[in-house]
């Protein structure tokens, strides 16, 4: 029987540290502030927004939401984004994605101030993650996987690690963070041959494909650590991950559940990133420098 990697426990330990840091910042006259930008009313976005607001509130971080209509023009979207980007009271910006198909994300990715880019979407932060420079921001979900491994004392160093999924928000940045931590990483995707074997040989398996319960027991090695990033709606309308939890939990050494796993840690990482950004801002003020 596996050890269940509970996101709430990881989130609690991150929160305890952050509350102290937020208090210290407030004593210096700085209230960390996250600005969420949402276009439309997608249920995924609304649910992530609710979780993020609650997490910021619990940590003492101010949270503002700017909601734009689904049919907002590219021009108005960029103008709104630019106004928030230039607001010196805002330390972090979270753009809920994917955007409606009518909007191009490229201009705002190029525009966002790298120090406010708390979900790591700018080319600057991507380059930092890919070059192993930890001064930037990795996408929160990828970083949440790293936090879970660390909390449970699972060291990536030297381990065979397979990641299922090569997206720019999860699979690829996570592969880079695990490489930085000296893991031996294999990235799998829809064209991978002998997928079950690639997964089965892993000592640490991360599923981020977005396919309900596609990781079956035979795909998991004895005593593997299994982290499930997937969030899917199953045939009964409930939430489930990419891993067949009930079958795999008897074989893995550690397993993260869905819900209650990675998703619960993502908003804590977001809060951590806002605080990191606010601390950078504070340092900049202390040095009287205009370069933040
Ligand atoms: P995506 O659709 O952008 O990428 C999915 C990746 O999985 C692709 O690289 C694709 O090649 C691969 N893939 C898909 N089906 C496959 C298959 N049958 N075999 C092998 N590879 C396959 O998705 P994403 O944005 O990276 O998200 C992945 C999952 O993680 C989704 O379920 C999403 O809802 C979830 N997610 C969770 C969080 C969180 O906080 N827990 C955050 C972001 C995304």
Automatic annotation (TrEMBL):
Residues 139-279 form the Tetrahydrofolate dehydrogenase/cyclohydrolase NAD(P)-binding domain. InterPro entries: Aminoacid_DH-like_N_sf, NAD(P)-bd_dom_sf, THF_DH/CycHdrlase, THF_DH/CycHdrlase_cat_dom, THF_DH/CycHdrlase_NAD-bd_dom. GO terms for biological process: L-histidine biosynthetic process; methionine biosynthetic process; purine nucleotide biosynthetic process; tetrahydrofolate interconversion. One of its GO terms (molecular function) is methenyltetrahydrofolate cyclohydrolase activity. Pathway: One-carbon metabolism; tetrahydrofolate interconversion. GO terms for cellular component: cytosol. It catalyses: (6R)-5,10-methylene-5,6,7,8-tetrahydrofolate + NADP(+) = (6R)-5,10-methenyltetrahydrofolate + NADPH; (6R)-5,10-methenyltetrahydrofolate + H2O = (6R)-10-formyltetrahydrofolate + H(+). Keywords: Amino-acid biosynthesis, Histidine biosynthesis, Hydrolase, Methionine biosynthesis, Multifunctional enzyme, NADP, One-carbon metabolism, Oxidoreductase, Purine biosynthesis. Its EC number is 1.5.1.5, 3.5.4.9. Residues 5-119 form the Tetrahydrofolate dehydrogenase/cyclohydrolase catalytic domain. It comes from the Bacteria. NADP(+) binds at residues 165-167, 231. Catalyzes the oxidation of 5,10-methylenetetrahydrofolate to 5,10-methenyltetrahydrofolate and then the hydrolysis of 5,10-methenyltetrahydrofolate to 10-formyltetrahydrofolate. Belongs to the tetrahydrofolate dehydrogenase/cyclohydrolase family. Homodimer. This is Bifunctional protein FolD. It comes from Sporofaciens musculi. The gene is folD.
């Amino acid at each position: 029987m596996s050890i269940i990697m509970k996101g709430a426990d990881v989130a609690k330990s991150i929160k305890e540290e952050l509350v102290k840091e937020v208090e210290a910042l407030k004593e210096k006259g700085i209230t960390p502030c996250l600005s969420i930008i949402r276009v439309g009313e997608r249920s995924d976005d609304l649910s992530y927004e609710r979780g993020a607001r609650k997490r910021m509130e619990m940590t003492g971080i101010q949270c503002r939401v700017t909601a734009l209509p689904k049919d907002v023009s590219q021009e108005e979207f960029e103008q709104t984004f630019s106004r928030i980007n230039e607001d010196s009271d805002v330390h972090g910006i979270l753009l809920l994605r994917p955007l409606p198909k009518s909007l191009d994300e490229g201009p705002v990715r190029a525009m966002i101030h790298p120090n406010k880019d708390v979900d790591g979407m700018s080319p600057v932060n991507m380059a930092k993650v890919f070059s192993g420079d930890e001064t930037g921001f990795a996408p929160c979900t990828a970083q949440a996987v790293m936090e879970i491994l660390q909390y449970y004392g699972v060291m990536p160093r030297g381990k065979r690690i397979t990641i299922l999924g090569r997206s720019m928000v999860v699979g690829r940045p996570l592969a880079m963070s695990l490489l930085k931590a000296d893991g031996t990483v294999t990235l799998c995707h829809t064209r991978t041959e002998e997928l079950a074997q690639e997964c089965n040989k892993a000592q640490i398996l991360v599923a981020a494909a977005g396919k309900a319960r596609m990781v079956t027991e035979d795909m998991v090695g004895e005593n593997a650590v299994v982290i499930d990033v997937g969030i899917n709606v199953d045939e009964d309308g409930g939430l489930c991950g990419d891993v067949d939890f009930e079958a795999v939990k008897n074989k893995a050494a550690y397993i993260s559940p869905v819900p209650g796993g990675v998703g619960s840690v993502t908003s804590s990482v977001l809060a951590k990133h806002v605080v990191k950004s606010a601390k950078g801002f504070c340092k900049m003020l202390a040095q009287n420098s205009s370069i933040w």
